Amino acid sequence: MSGRAFGLDNLRKLFERKERTFDRYVDALPTHQNAIDAIPGWSTAFPEAFGVTAGIVPTYYDQRIFWAVECFGSLEGREVLELGPLEAGHTYMLENAGATVDAVEANQLAFMRCLVAKEILRMQKARFWLGDFVKWLEQTEKSYDLIVASGVLYHLHDPLRLLELIAQRASSVFIWTHVVSDAMPISDPRRSVMAKEPEILSFHGVKVRAYPRSYVRTQGNPAFCGGMRDDHRWLDKDDLLAALRALGFDDIRTNHDDPDHFFGPAISIFARKSS
């Protein structure tokens, strides 16, 4: 019997021996923090009440989105398309305002962070889609009450094409974007990654100045949240507003005009077709 007991004890110890956990597993008490830590590159924060740590930018309480909702009116029961939700902070605000949201994100890591955020924040009326929102707009037959394009226009190779598609799918749009303006002269160091001379584009009867710009290899960072290609254009501020008017947006309001933004002048725009 003693030999048998000795053998069972050794066998038990063999199975209980601490081995290194495989990399794809989490050998810890299940928590929301584990899900956050599993995906690198977080930029945004969660409300303090949720007790988790991610990035530092409080997009869940963004004055730009509050202003957009104020301009639009009640979002209760409204259909919203969000372009580039990043980590779902604005999606959370839009849902809390009453909207049902389609949120389209092309960055795979950002998309996964959105799904984690959806679970933690218990969002019920938002759906996240992985892919190119330009192709979504080109192929969907759905119309939206509002399109939210915060932090995406200046990342596109063809930002005017996006504006054209937005005008086909919604009568109201909120845009936050970087622009080129007189506040950023040629000598401004923020212009160092930008073409000195603009491309002059003809768009629905107006001339638009578009400035090619480079990411300067920052796209290798897991926190990178730019466009899909290092071939994007910033629009002149006045020309952007003229382009929106040419598309039929006759009620145009601006806010958060920040000529001193670290990366370049930035502005919030709410535009609506009054008809």
Write the layout of secondary structure elements.
Elements: H1 2-16, H2 32-37, H3 63-72, E1 79-83, H4 89-96, E2 100-105, H5 108-121, E3 126-130, H6 133-139, E4 146-150, H7 159-169, E5 172-178, E6 199-203, E7 206-213, E8 232-235, H8 237-246, E9 251-258, E10 266-272
Short description:
The chain is of the alpha/beta class and 275 residues long. Helices cover 29% and strands 22% of the residues.
How would you explain this protein's 3D organization?
The chain is of the alpha/beta class. It has one domain: 3-Layer(aba) Sandwich (Rossmann fold). Helix content is 29%, strand content 22%. The protein is built from eight helices and ten strands. The termini are far apart.
Number-wise, the strands total 10
Termini separation comes to 92 Å
Proportion of residues in helical segments: 25-40%
Order of helices and strands: HHHEHEHEHEHEEEEHEE
Low-confidence stretches: none
Q: What's the number of helices?
A: 8
Q: What fraction of residues sit in β-strands? A: 15-25%
Please identify the top-level CATH class.
Alpha Beta
